[in-house]
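Running co-folding for NDP.
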Amino acid sequence: NKQVIFRGYIEGAPKETDMEIKISGIQLKAPKGSDSGAFLVKNLYLSCDPYMRGRMRSSFTSSYIPPFVPGQPVEGFGVSKVVDSDNPNFKPGDLVAGLTGWEEYSLIRKTEQLRKIQPDHHIPLSYHIGLLGMPGFTAYAGFHEVCSPKSGEYVFVSAASGAVGQLVGQLAKLHGCYVVGSAGSSQKVDLLKNKLGFDEAFNYNDETDLVAALKRCFPQGIDIYFDNVGGEMLDAALLNMRDHGRIAVCGMVSLHSYHDPQGIHNLFTLVTKRITMKGFLQSDYLHLYPRFLDYVISNYKQGKIVYVEDMNEGLENAPAAFVGLFSGKNVGKQVVRVACE
Ligand code: NDP
């Protein structure tokens, strides 16, 4: 069983050497017995997500998920196939999406974060960790529940071509908003404008003054900022917000790379413009998951939503794929194909 092992707790941005590949023996059988309920899965696709960086820190303070255990496989979302089971609800051949190990085969004992997938020829299996998985749901819950959008409003999305951002922009367009995205390369900007339907996009690496760049894109100001990055971009967005604007704080991926992140100077704008800024976790909205799936699958099948994936081949390339998230190497949702369907 090939595995990606987490070596030990880290500071700063993650490196490939924080993980190592190991081969260990495995019995391709689930333990049987009255109190087992375990089942063995073959992992097909693994998801690389920025939040996993938080699990590499011993002091990770989250009520719902603990830090990784040094010496054990990295854990993350995946799409897997059941190969042997002692659980009547999961039979060999069933497909599941949820938390699994970064390894070829995993023994699953907890099923709370797992859902069965009905194969559908029109939907790639890997979408169950992207468009239809946690990142897609984050976009849906964050935009519709946290941003209180109204048709005609001006929406700005950062890390806009990523797993979450690309769907936020499309949801905002479907809602009748004007949408601008920022991203870190001209290739991503092209994707935003020509494939993902954003009204405008800019490469923040080409801008010397982010406040001016946002002013250029939003002469009337921003009603909604969906913040995936924090840092300087948040500071610049604050100065461009309209009165009664909303900022959904989804993530602050820029902070992971810096030991001494630059502080935010413009928070007083919250007061002068009566802006609402709200952090959220997608896991607080899970009751909306069925509604999200109906909405996104229906729009996807009608061609009104598209999704861009960045697929790396092979488990041994998973550490590099994950590390690449923090320098913007991924173009679209970063996925690793571990085995063929
Ligand atoms: P992405 O697919 O967007 O990948 C990360 C992207 O972040 C990179 O491609 C890069 O894009 C950008 N980035 C990396 N480093 C920096 C930096 N130093 N400054 C600015 N941008 C940077 O990731 P996701 O869509 O999966 O996640 C987006 C955000 O959403 C993250 O902050 C994540 O933690 C958060 N999140 C929050 C959830 C919640 O429940 N609140 C759930 C899921 C995700 P570029 O080249 O454009 O800079």
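Result summary
DSSP finds eight helices and 15 strands in the chain.
The mean pLDDT is 94.
Job closed.
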